[in-house]
Every structure is written in C-alpha cells, then in structure tokens.
C-alpha cells in the first residue's frame, strides 16, 4: 500500500457544548472548505502518498450534530451507545453519506437494555424505524403556545383558505382584509367553547396581528410575505428577529428553523468592605 496517511495529532476537533459557539462555526466552515482532493493529497518522491496539514481527520460530537449540519465529506460515523430518542438516532446517523456512500457503526453497550434490544432486532428495526419515532409533546391552549404558533396558523389560514381573493402567492400580502379571519375565529371558537377566557385571549392577539398587518400595508407599503432584496416582507425568521422590538411576525419557515442566539455576560458583584 502506497497510501501511508494515518491519524495525526492536532487534526481533531470538537462539536460539543464545551466549545465556544464562535469556534464551532469556524470548525464547521473549516470542514466544509477543506477536504481531500488533488491539492491536499500529494505524492512524495519515493511514490508514497501523504496528506497536507490543515485537514481535520476526526470530529468528536454530541447530539448537536444531529440537526442542521450538512457536510458532504462526512462518510464514517461511530455512534457510541444507542440514543434515547429514535428521532435523534435517525437524524444523527443521517449526517454521513450526504453525497458519497457512507458507513455508520453502532457501538452498543451489552449492559443496557435499550442497546441489547436494538442489537437483537437490528434488521427489522432499521427496515421500519420511522414508525418508532416518538410523538412530540405539546401542551395545547396555553398562552405560550398561542404566542408561538398563532402567527403561523393565521398566515397559513389566510394563504390557503381565502377564496374570494387569491392570497397564496408571495406578493399577495398587500391584499389582506380583516374579514378573511372570520372563518378562523369560528373554528377556534368551537375548540374553546368551554373556556371563554382563553378564547378572549386568542381573539385579542389575533386582532393585534390583524391591526399590525394593516398598519404595515398602509404606512410601510407592505406587499410581500417574504422580503426580497428591494422590498420589505411581513415575515421574520426566528434567527433574524430583533431584541430591540417585539417581532409579531417571527414565524418558522422550515422544520430546521432555529431561534435567535442569546448571549449572557456574568459580572462580579461590587463588594464593599466593612469598616
């Protein structure tokens, strides 16, 4: 074998909570931009092949790798013990083989019941593991649920249930009318028929959104749901919302949406000496 590349020190990185978020972004960018190709794999005069420095060989990661990381060069993964959630297992193992064929190795613990069951039913489990995904827990009809989801429900209803005016296309936000929400109010009232207080909360928040939508059309020349390079938009992605104002229109626009980063600075209290 003329390819003499082996693991070298200082060619490993971490994607864990122990690493600063800025360092994690740098590592992901490095992994995407630096890969094995004709420029990094070179030959010595004796014919042996070697790899230039600057290529990461090994990445140690926690479950943060399971969502939203699409790096084409990942092709071998070792999963240390069976994750608690099937959804996490599917997501994490899907990080390899994005472009080229990949290999996932499960290192199971014989002393754990979950790992033993996974081993004993390995083939049938993998043939139909999507039906084993756990349901997402959600407490309905709470104020926090309304705060997070009412905007999404309202936009979806207006775009897909309005019949007298086509509202689905991106440039239809300018044609909004409060009467378009009458059917939504009727449906929600059926669900909240035994709790007038909760329905009043829903109706007041819906009116706040409706008034703000009209205000943006009249005073800010709003035309589109999603912003373009030249025109403002109604919707704001969670990662782009501002802390300076209350973004009523912060709406998830994909299943991989993440919220805005928050930074906390811990300061030492001022201590006065007695006497």
Percent of residues in helical segments? 25-40%
**Based on helices, strands and strand pairing, what is the structural class?**
alpha/beta
Number of strands: 6
- The poorly predicted ranges are none
The fraction of residues assigned to DSSP E strands is 5-15%
Quickly count the helices: 7
SSE ordering:
EHEEEEHEHHHHH
Q: Give the oligomeric state.
A: single chain
CA radius of gyration is: 26 Å
- Silhouette: extended
Strands of the largest sheet, in order across it?
1-4
Largest sheet: 2 strands, parallel
In round numbers, the mean pLDDT is: 82
* Cα separation of the termini: 78 Å
Task: Describe what is shown at a glance.
With 275 residues, this protein is an alpha/beta fold. The protein contains seven helices and six strands.
Characterise the protein shown here:
- This protein is α/β, with parallel strands linked by helices and 275 residues long.
- Helix content is 32%, strand content 9%.
- The protein contains 7 helices and 6 strands, in the order βαββββαβααααα.
- It has a two-stranded parallel sheet with strand order 1-4. Strands 2-3 form a two-stranded antiparallel sheet. Strands 5-6 form a two-stranded parallel ribbon.
- Helix 5 (143-161) packs across helix 7 (196-220).
- It is extended, with a radius of gyration of 26 Å.
- The mean pLDDT is 82.
């Amino acid at each position: 074998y003329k390819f003499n590349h082996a693991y070298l020190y200082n060619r490993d990185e971490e994607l864990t909570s122990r690493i600063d978020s800025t360092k994690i972004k740098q590592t992901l960018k490095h992994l995407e931009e630096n890969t094995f190709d004709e420029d990094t794999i070179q030959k010595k005069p004796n014919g042996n092949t070697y790899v230039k420095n600057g290529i990461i060989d090994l990445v140690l990661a926690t479950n943060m790798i399971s969502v939203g990381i699409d790096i084409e060069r990942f092709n071998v993964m070792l999963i240390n013990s069976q994750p608690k959630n099937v959804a996490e297992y599917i997501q994490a193992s899907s990080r390899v083989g994005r472009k080229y064929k990949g290999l996932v190795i499960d290192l199971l613990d014989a002393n754990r019941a979950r790992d033993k069951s996974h081993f004993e039913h390995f083939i049938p489990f993998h043939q139909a593991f999507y039906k084993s995904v756990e349901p997402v827990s959600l407490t309905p009809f709470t104020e926090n649920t309304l705060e997070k989801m009412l905007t999404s429900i309202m936009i979806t209803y207006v775009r897909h249930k309005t019949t007298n005016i086509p509202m689905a296309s991106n440039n239809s936000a300018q044609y909004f009318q409060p009467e378009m929400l009458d059917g939504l109010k009727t449906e929600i009232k059926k669900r909240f028929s035994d709790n007038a207080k909760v329905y009043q909360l829903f109706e007041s928040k819906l009116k706040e959104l409706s008034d703000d939508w009209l205000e943006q059309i009249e005073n800010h020349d709003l035309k589109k749901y999603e912003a373009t390079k030249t025109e403002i938009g109604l919707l704001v992605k969670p990662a782009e919302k501002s802390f300076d104002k209350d973004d009523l229109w912060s709406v998830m626009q994909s299943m991989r949406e993440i919220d805005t980063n928050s930074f906390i600075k811990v300061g030492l209290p001022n201590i006065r000496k007695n006497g």
